[in-house]
């Protein structure tokens, strides 16, 4: 009988009292993210994001498919986010909860509908063949802030991913293996990132990146997705308690600042990873050693 | 696929001849269906919705989590599209958009209703979308509010909603004019947000935006949206009062 | 208590040299949690951890710290202690297990299993005519806490506990086929002895081994609470189900105490580290 366990009255009262006194349980400032850790897998397109105790892994895979007839010049891009019981016993397979639905919808709007990935670049032969890209989001550990962490994971994985090169001769397309030709990065148009605001005390107190217990106490949340260029890709406030419109607008300003900070971190990690790989490649070429 | 916006930038009139801050014709009725506890019929331009409320009735077993969860009543929302509602016939009954719609309705209306008065019970909202021409979520929210009032479910205030789009700007520097109450043609071309406010103070209950827009554009859209919500509130309030007069 | 620790993995055969040497032939070797006897002479491990032996008591057990890092524990791992007497196995009730240190593994799953006599912090879920349904660990069957199992409670004067309130209770029955029963009163004296509803304060999640070590007192080798209590006053309740309830009057002080213990737990701090953690915590107040 899995169910989300509710927080006890003692914890609820304590968290609220602490917020009144400008304190968070883990000692963070109200507008601070938990420490973000981002690591990449050995393969291209695997990103492992740890946001405090929340951990999300995104993996990109590619396949060749026939494009849908109504979108001949587009490739296919799917984001699949499912909760597994691994993250929390409250999650059940096959019965999507509201949180799961919100997560997959937000990722869809934030990344797919905002055209973060240029799907036209995935087209191989118009109407006949295209790359079908699939991003799988695995929630490994759940301690709140899933939307933010998942969005970081997917965007980092997309930027890390390299697709195999392809040669087209008339109607014939040949996918070149990684050995034959250096795989090419995806064309990313912009980098949307989500920032969740949880608010308490009738919209008086706003928290960024709430953990699980704070999420259980909050009045409601606003998820803002922005990119570092200052474009708002998505805003979601699905009900909950009401909030002052000015506070809502303020969220977009704070989000922009946070998104800029996080973009920088992600970019830094990507560059570090690329450097690591590059050195490896050069060394491998220069090396006289044979693989036995 | 840019919209032919020349009409707007020249005459400041939209495709259907409205000005930027003009609502479409909003027509609403309540108590349209005798069998339901409460019902409403709402037209926002060509978007037409029939909404019925049944309950509060005994909660289904297994629903609502049981245990301590049932000390409050719960709200269930069921959204269905008529096959003829859009330009294309819909194939699948349930898709992500439908669940998203019903989830938004549930979570936005639940805090307004005094559900603690109905322990162990369920209130079911059924929305039938008869015709869609943009501003779907806003129309659903407005009709649900009316139907709940008709059913006599105690609630704190009206939740009224409108959509608001940001028209393409003529210069790069400033964001374009906000357009109130978009129809489906505008919805497809322009970034828009749905805004729902509660009460006279215009506190935001719902805010959903699904398309990319410059950060500066949001401010204008929210400001115009709040204005629009207040106007919708007046109309909705008028409908309820008009209905009440019949009994006086 | 031996300082020597051998890391073992499930299925390892424990070499006879690692086991305590019986000074007295009469005294049987006692096997604690995580060890299994396969007749005639083999002893294998069933869990990963550090092998700890006690020559004086002629006992051996596995010390494992599987405090799940995340908030919610899951996936049960069952450990049945056995006592071996002349190659005959008898199942005995759990022994209090002191420990000298622990090996922390991140992200291992463990769930508390109710056993009689343990002190737990339970959360009230709902109330029936006879008892409160409480959960000791989330996502498992609830335990029953009779309405009369409180100090001074009788038919006419019964405690009212709203859902999601906390109680400090002792497990009186943990049958395999029945739901566990807990009580907030000592049956022999009729006194609460510190058990009962917990008001105010805050709950901190700690690992099961930390809870065990805290309850073991001096033998547990955790001096954080003692260190803090020298400088400030606070109330604590330690639940074997991995919960620590703290009330130190103010939010700041409560947080400082809770975080100091969590820090000692997560980083597996030794004596010195714990002292430092205490100093840091005191500085914050």
From TrEMBL, chain A:
InterPro entries: ExoRNase_PH_dom1 (IPR001247), ExoRNase_PH_dom2 (IPR015847), ExoRNase_PH_dom2_sf (IPR036345), Exosome_comp_Rrp42_subfam (IPR050590), PNPase/RNase_PH_dom_sf (IPR027408), Ribosomal_Su5_D2-typ_SF (IPR020568), Rrp45 (IPR033100). Keywords: Cytoplasm, Exosome, Nucleus, RNA-binding, rRNA processing. GO terms for cellular component: cytoplasmic exosome (RNase complex); nuclear exosome (RNase complex); nucleolus. GO terms for molecular function: mRNA 3'-UTR AU-rich region binding. It is found in: Cytoplasm; Nucleus, Nucleolus. One of its GO terms (biological process) is U5 snRNA 3'-end processing. Residues 33-164, 190-257 form the Exoribonuclease phosphorolytic domain. Its main location: cytoplasm. Belongs to the RNase PH family. This is Exosome complex component RRP45. It comes from Polyplosphaeria fusca.
Automatic annotation (TrEMBL), chain B:
Residues 22-154 form the Exoribonuclease phosphorolytic domain. It is found in: Cytoplasm; Nucleus, Nucleolus. One of its GO terms (molecular function) is RNA binding. GO terms for cellular component: cytoplasmic exosome (RNase complex); nuclear exosome (RNase complex); nucleolus; ribosome. Gene3D superfamilies: GHMP Kinase, N-terminal domain. InterPro entries: ExoRNase_PH_dom1, ExoRNase_PH_dom2_sf, PNPase/RNase_PH_dom_sf, Ribosomal_Su5_D2-typ_SF, RNase_PH. Its main location: cytoplasm. GO terms for biological process: nuclear mRNA surveillance; poly(A)-dependent snoRNA 3'-end processing; rRNA catabolic process; U4 snRNA 3'-end processing. The keyword Ribosomal protein applies. Keywords: Cytoplasm, Exosome, Ribonucleoprotein, Ribosomal protein. Belongs to the RNase PH family. PANTHER family: EXOSOME COMPLEX COMPONENT (PTHR11953), EXOSOME COMPLEX COMPONENT RRP41 (PTHR11953:SF0). Component of the RNA exosome complex. Specifically part of the catalytically inactive RNA exosome core complex (Exo-9) which may associate with the catalytic subunits RRP6 and DIS3 in cytoplasmic- and nuclear-specific RNA exosome complex forms. Exo-9 is formed by a hexameric base ring of RNase PH domain-containing subunits and a cap ring consisting of CSL4, RRP4 and RRP40. This is Ribosomal RNA-processing protein 41.
Automatic annotation (TrEMBL), chain C:
The keyword Coiled coil does not apply. It comes from Polyplosphaeria fusca. It comes from the Eukaryota. The keyword RNA-binding applies. Pfam families: KH_6, Rrp40_N, RRP40_S1. Keywords: Cytoplasm, Exosome, RNA-binding. It is found in: Nucleus. GO terms for biological process: CUT catabolic process; exonucleolytic trimming to generate mature 3'-end of 5.8S rRNA from tricistronic rRNA transcript (SSU-rRNA, 5.8S rRNA, LSU-rRNA); nuclear polyadenylation-dependent rRNA catabolic process; poly(A)-dependent snoRNA 3'-end processing; TRAMP-dependent tRNA surveillance pathway; U4 snRNA 3'-end processing. One of its GO terms (cellular component) is nuclear exosome (RNase complex). InterPro entries: Exosome_RNA_bind1/RRP40/RRP4 (IPR026699), KH_dom_type_1 (IPR004088), KH_dom_type_1_sf (IPR036612), NA-bd_OB-fold (IPR012340), RRP40_KH-I (IPR049469), Rrp40_N_euk (IPR041054). Residues 201-251 form the K Homology domain. GO terms for molecular function: RNA binding. Residues 29-68 form the Exosome complex exonuclease Rrp40 N-terminal domain. This is Ribosomal RNA-processing protein 40.
């Amino acid at each position: 009988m899995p169910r989300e366990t509710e927080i006890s009255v003692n914890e609820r009262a304590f968290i609220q009292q602490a917020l009144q006194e400008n304190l968070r349980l883990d000692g963070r400032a109200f507008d601070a993210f938990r420490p973000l850790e981002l690591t990449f897998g050995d393969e291209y397109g695997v990103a492992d994001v740890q946001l405090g105790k929340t951990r999300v892994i995104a993996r990109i895979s590619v396949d060749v498919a026939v494009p849908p007839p109504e979108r001949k010049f587009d490739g296919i891009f799917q984001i699949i986010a499912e909760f597994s019981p691994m993250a929390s016993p409250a999650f059940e397979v096959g019965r999507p909860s509201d949180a799961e639905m919100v997560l997959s919808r937000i990722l869809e709007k934030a990344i797919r509908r905002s055209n973060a990935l240029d799907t036209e670049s995935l087209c191989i032969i118009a109407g006949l063949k295209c790359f079908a890209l699939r991003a799988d989001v695995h929630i490994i550990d759940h301690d709140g802030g899933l939307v933010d962490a998942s969005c970081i994971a997917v965007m980092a994985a997309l930027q890390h991913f390299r697709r195999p090169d392809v040669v087209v001769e008339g109607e014939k397309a040949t996918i070149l293996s990684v050995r034959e030709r250096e795989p090419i990065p995806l064309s990313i148009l912009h980098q949307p990132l989500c920032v969740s605001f949880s608010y308490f005390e009738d919209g008086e107190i706003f928290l960024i990146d709430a953990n699980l217990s704070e999420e259980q106490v909050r009045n409601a949340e606003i998820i803002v997705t922005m990119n570092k260029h200052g474009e708002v890709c998505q805003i979601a406030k699905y009900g909950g308690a009401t909030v002052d419109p000015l506070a809502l607008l303020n969220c977009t300003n704070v989000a922009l600042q946070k998104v800029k900070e996080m973009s920088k971190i992600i970019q830094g990690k990507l560059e570090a990873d690329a450097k690591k790989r590059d050195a490896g490649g050069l060394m491998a070429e220069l090396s006289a050693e044979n693989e036995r | 696929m840019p919209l032919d916006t020349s009409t707007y930038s020249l005459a400041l009139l939209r495709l259907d001849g409205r000005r930027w801050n003009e609502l479409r014709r909003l027509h609403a009725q309540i108590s349209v269906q005798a069998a339901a506890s409460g019902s409403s019929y709402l037209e926002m331009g060509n978007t037409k919705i029939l909404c019925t409320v049944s309950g509060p009735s005994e909660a289904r077993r297994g629903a609502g989590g049981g245990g301590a969860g049932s000390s409050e009543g719960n709200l269930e929302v069921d959204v269905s599209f008529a096959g003829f509602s859009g330009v294309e016939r819909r194939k699948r009954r349930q898709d992500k958009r439908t669940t998203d719609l019903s989830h938004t309705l549930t979570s936005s209306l639940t805090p307004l209703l005094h559900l603690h008065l109905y322990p162990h019970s369920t209130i079911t909202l059924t929305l039938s979308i008869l015709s869609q021409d943009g501003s779907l979520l806003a129309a659903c929210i407005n009709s649900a509010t009316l139907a709940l009032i008709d059913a006599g479910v105690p609630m704190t205030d009206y939740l009224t909603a409108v959509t608001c789009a940001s028209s393409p700007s003529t210069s790069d520097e400033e964001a374009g004019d906000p357009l109130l109450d978009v129809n489906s043609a505008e919805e497809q071309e322009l970034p828009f947000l749905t805004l729902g406010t509660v009460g006279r103070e215009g506190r935001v209950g719902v805010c959903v935006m699904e398309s990319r827009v410059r950060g500066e554009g949001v401010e204008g859209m929210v400001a115009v949206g709040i204005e629009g919500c207040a106007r919708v509130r007046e109309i909705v309030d008028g409908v309820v009062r008009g209905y009440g007069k019949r009994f006086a | 208590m031996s300082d020597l620790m051998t890391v073992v993995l499930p299925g390892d055969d424990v070499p006879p040299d690692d086991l305590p040497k019986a000074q007295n032939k009469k005294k049987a070797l006692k096997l604690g949690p995580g060890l299994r006897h396969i007749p005639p002479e083999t002893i294998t491990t069933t869990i990963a951890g550090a092998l700890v032996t006690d020559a004086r008591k002629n006992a051996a057990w596995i010390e494992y710290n599987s405090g799940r890092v995340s908030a919610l524990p899951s996936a049960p791992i069952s450990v049945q202690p056995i006592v071996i007497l002349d190659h005959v196995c008898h199942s005995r009730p759990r022994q209090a297990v002191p420990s000298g240190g622990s090996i922390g593994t991140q992200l291992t799953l463990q769930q508390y299993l109710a056993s009689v006599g343990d002190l737990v912090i339970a959360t009230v879920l709902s109330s029936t005519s006879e008892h409160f349904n409480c959960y000791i660990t989330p996502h498992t069957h609830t335990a029953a806490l009779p309405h009369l199992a409180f100090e001074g409670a009788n038919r006419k004067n019964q405690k009212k506990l709203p859902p999601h309130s906390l109680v400090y209770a002792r497990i009186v029955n943990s049958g395999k086929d029945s739901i566990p029963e807990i009580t907030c009163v000592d049956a022999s004296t009729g006194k609460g002895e510190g058990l009962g509803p917990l008001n105010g304060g805050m709950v901190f999640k700690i690992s099961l081994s930390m809870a065990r070590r805290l309850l073991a007192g001096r033998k547990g080798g955790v001096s954080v609470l003692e260190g803090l209590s020298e400088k400030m006053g606070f109330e604590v309740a330690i639940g074997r189900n991995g919960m620590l309830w703290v009330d130190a009057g103010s939010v700041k002080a409560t947080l400082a105490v809770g975080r100091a213990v969590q820090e000692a737990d997560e980083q597996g701090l030794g004596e010195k580290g714990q002292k430092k953690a205490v100093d840091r915590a005191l500085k914050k107040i």
